[in-house]
Amino acid sequence: MDDNNIVKHSIQWRWSWIWISLAWALILTILSSIPGKSMPHWHVLSEDKLIHCLFYMPFGWTILSAFGRKYWFRFGFMMMIVMLYGGCDEVHQHFVPGRTMDVWDWSFDALGGAIGGSIFLMWEKRFPRG
Description:
Blueprint (H helix, E strand, L loop, with lengths): L2 H30 L14 H19 L8 H21 L8 H24 L4
C-alpha cells in the first residue's frame, strides 16, 4: 500500500468512527428522552449506575477510535467529550417527565467512557491498525 492509500484509509477510518460516535450519541439521547418514574436515590451504587456505565463504554471506545495514534492528548480529549455530553444529558433528563438530573449518573457516565477508552487502548496495543 503506497503512502497516498495509507492516508486515504486513515481518513476514511477516522470519519467512520466519527459517524459511529455521533450515532451512539443519538442513541443515548433517545434513551434518555424516554419518560420514567422518579424514584428517590438512596444508594450511590445501583443498577441504574451500572446501566449508565455500560452505555457510555461504547461512547468512549468510538470517540477514541476516531483519533490517530500520534495524538498523545486523545484520551483526555475523549474524556472531555464524554463528560460534556454526559453533563448535557443529565441536564436534558431534568426536563423529561419522571427523570431526574443526578451528579452520580454523570460520574458513572464518565467512568463508563474511561473504561471504554481504556479497553480500546489495550485492544489497539494488542491488535495495531496495520
